[in-house]
Amino acid sequence: MTAAFVKLLVTDSARSVAFYEALGFTRVSAEPPFVHLRWAEALDVYLVTPPPQLKLEGRRGTGVLVGLRAEAPHSLDEVLLRAQALGAAVDGPTVQPWYTRELIVTDPDGYRLNFIEPA
Question: What is the CA radius of gyration of the chain?
Fold first, then answer.
């Protein structure tokens, strides 16, 4: 287990798992309602299917970016190509004034993943 993790409530677990794995995440385990994924040994992501009585309404993750360091074997350009192949909404890459190059990819549930590498 890594030191950092995030839990994301998803509407379609199979669709979300396919999306994240196509971006380069590795599946660690799957035990409903959780699917445990990992990004480059640095961040664990738990995709959680909420109970039926919990209605997911509105935009998810408003004001939140899940930050991920893009580095070998998943460079920022590689993630960009993978996201484009998935038809995902992509913003960037953008060179920031704080000397990073950043890409924002929106997942099927509207969560925004911020991939970052040194500029």
Answer: 14
H or E stretch including 76? helix 76-86
* CATH class, range 5-52+62-118: alpha beta
What would the pLDDT profile of 27-38 be if each residue is shown by its tens digit? Answer: 999 998 999 999
Q: Any idea what the Cα angle at residue 34 is, between residues 80 and 10, rounded to 5°?
A: 55
CA neighbor of 7 nearest in space, from 50, 58, 54: 50
Catalogue the long-range contacts made by 15-18 (C-beta closer than 8 Å, 24 or more residues apart).
15/108, 16/47, 16/107, 16/108, 16/109, 17/47
Assigned token pair, 111: 């969560």
Q: pLDDT of 95-108, one tens digit each? A: 999 999 999 999 99
> Global pTM?
0.90
Q: Which amino acid is at 15?
A: R
